[in-house]
């Protein structure tokens, strides 16, 4: 029994879009799939650390984590007035933040990545450890995953 206040819902076809090519429904099904992808295009902050700090220089895990935290907080603070960063940091979003932590082989690769990001206009913070004065990691401001994922696709998840 439906009430006058209940909206009627369109029926959704569960058929394969390939079998519906001649019916015009393939485009509708593909459009709905694209809409779902847009909804899943979450805000994300990328953090990239140097793996050699662990493997070759024997840094403690806590020190590596601290470097990533420094870069992440600095990137957020530097871009606190950016609308996406502000949305990422809203109180109601704090329990739903997305971060992707990746690794590069060493300082040269990290600096090369930072240069490529700068050239592409991807805002980030390259963290330079002091007083040693060398780059340990970088972090982006918050971006929609679709906007920046291509810049990180060749990197491995940090393990």
TrEMBL record:
CDD domains noted in UniProt: PTH2_like
InterPro entries reported in the protein's UniProt record: Pep_tRNA_hydro_II_dom_sf, PTH2, PTRHD1
Keyword Hydrolase: yes
Region: Disordered, residue numbers: 1-28
Keyword Calcium (UniProt): no
Documented EC number(s): 3.1.1.29
Keywords, comma-separated and alphabetical: Hydrolase
GO molecular function, one term: peptidyl-tRNA hydrolase activity
Annotated catalysed reactions: an N-acyl-L-alpha-aminoacyl-tRNA + H2O = an N-acyl-L-amino acid + a tRNA + H(+)
Transmembrane segments: none
EC class of the enzyme, as a word: hydrolase
UniProt-recorded name of the protein: peptidyl-tRNA hydrolase
Organism for this UniProt entry: Marchantia polymorpha
């Amino acid at each position: 029994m439906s009430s006058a206040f209940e909206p009627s819902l369109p029926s959704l076809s569960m058929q394969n879009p390939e079998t519906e090519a001649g019916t015009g429904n393939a485009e509708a099904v593909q459009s709905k799939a694209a809409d779902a992808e847009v909804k899943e295009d979450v805000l994300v902050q990328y953090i990239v650390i140097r793996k050699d700090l662990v493997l070759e220089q024997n840094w403690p895990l806590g020190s590596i984590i601290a470097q990533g935290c420094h870069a992440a907080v600095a990137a957020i603070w530097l871009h606190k007035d950016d609308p996406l960063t502000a949305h990422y940091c809203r109180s109601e979003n704090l329990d739903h933040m997305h971060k992707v932590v990746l690794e590069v082989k060493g300082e040269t690769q990290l600096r090369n990545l930072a240069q490529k990001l700068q050239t592409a206009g991807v805002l980030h913070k390259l963290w330079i450890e002091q007083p040693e004065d060398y780059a340990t990691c970088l972090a982006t401001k918050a971006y929609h995953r679709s906007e920046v994922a291509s810049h990180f696709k060749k990197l491995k998840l940090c393990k």
